[in-house]
Amino acid sequence: MSRSTWFEKAKSFTKSMLSRGLGLIGHSRRASPEIKAIREVSCNGQEERFPPCEHRQPSQNHPGSYICGACGCGDRKAVLIGGRVPSYSKLDYPYLSCPIYMPGFSNYVPSGQDEESNERKVHLELKYGVERLNAIARGQKRGFLIESWRQKVRKIFTR
Ligand code: SF4
């Protein structure tokens, strides 16, 4: 599987926004702590034992923080993935895609089915297990479908 296209990125961004829900900021839906922790390791690595993703870049607008240089989301507070991040950060979105389909993200693709060789992904698959990671990605997709239907029904009844 090759990297996500511009269209896929735009579609994923819309899905992430919808998955958060339409409530007040304090009532936004969040990814579970387990999912967020896996995303954290995918993006930021883990201390000295495991390096950060090659696409992670220091934020120019928010010193001390990091953004994903491959997502095309720009350099805004809302898209920070590491360092000093807001209380609801990008990695909190219930549905979230990664341009290289890494573990913990909604569009995760196991290493054997991915065109690009990625030693970091293999390492995380050994750590968490491919089945578990697949189940996590499926759960995020299912959660997104349920939430989008819930929002459609809510719109119908609030007209
Ligand atoms: S490419 Fe994926 S794993 Fe790497 S920084 Fe971006 S979102 Fe994180």
Question: What order do the helices and strands come in, and which of them pair?
Answer:
Elements: H1 6-20, H2 33-44, E1 56-58, E2 65-68, E3 82-83, H3 119-128, H4 130-157
Antiparallel strand pairs: 1-2, 2-3
Iron/sulfur cluster (SF4) binds at residues 42-43, 53, 55-56, 68, 70-71, 81, 98-100, 102.
What key phrases describe this protein's structure?
single chain; 159 residues; mainly alpha; 3-stranded antiparallel beta sheet; 4 helices; 6% strand; globular; binds iron/sulfur cluster
Describe what this molecule looks like in 3D.
The protein has 159 residues and is mainly α. Helix content is 41%, strand content 6%. It has one domain (6-52, 90-157). The model has no long low-confidence stretch (mean pLDDT 89). The chain has helices at 6-20, 33-44, 119-128, 130-157, and strands at 56-58, 65-68, 82-83. A three-stranded antiparallel beta sheet has the order 1-2-3. The structure holds iron/sulfur cluster. Iron/sulfur cluster is lined by residues 42-43, 53, 55-56, 68, 70-71, 81, 98-100, 102.
Summarize the structure in short.
The chain has four helices and three strands; from the N terminus they run H-H-E-E-E-H-H. The protein has 159 residues and is mainly alpha-helical. The chain has one domain.
